[in-house]
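Entry type: protein chain
Record version: 2
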Amino acid sequence: MRFRGLLLGDIRFQFKYGFYFLYVLLTFVFIAVINAVPAAFKAKTAAVIIFTDPATLGIFFMGAIILLEKSQRVLNSLAVSPIKIWEYIAAKVVSLSIISTTVGFVLGVAAGAGGIASVALGTFLGSVLFTLLGIIIAAQTNSLNRFIITTVPAMLFLMVPPFFELFGYDSNIFNLYPSNIVLRIIAGNAENWLLEIPAVAMWIIFFYVIAHGRVSKMLRSIGGIKL
């Protein structure tokens, strides 16, 4: 019941602040871009768009979400409530993944991608990864400027390697790199599912453990007092 309440609260929060409206508009823009390129490049264009936006929207918006919660003293209420930290994190991850996966699915259909299930799975996994990373960064920042400054190197670290692979640079170094696997799944290029899916799962667990620690520290320090 607590998780359901947090999830619905996050969905209402995102709807109130225009997340759904924004992604309805962006989806039409993305579809227009996909339809504007030659048929031979539609699938790759869609994969790049899905990976760089809906799959990563969690890290872009998590700073604003958590900073708003801090400024509106939402976290003060949560800190003294019986909710568990995993419920708080899971509600954020699931609510944003709904938007990400839906948009990714629609763009995959628009591009005529053959493996729609693969597109949806890759988008979902990417959303979970990047949302957790956004939580890790946002939980330890107190201003949007600092969040952006901290996010840039993290984004470069995760976003650059997949494009080397997508455009022909083949290296075993990035076989188990999380963002490379995500883009590979979205693009329908995953070959070793038995190895790649567990690898992404391990990265998700790793990010979750860090996020759990950061959120726990954030809630304990509410009001300027470390308990």
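Comment: Residues 193-220 form the longest helix (28 residues).
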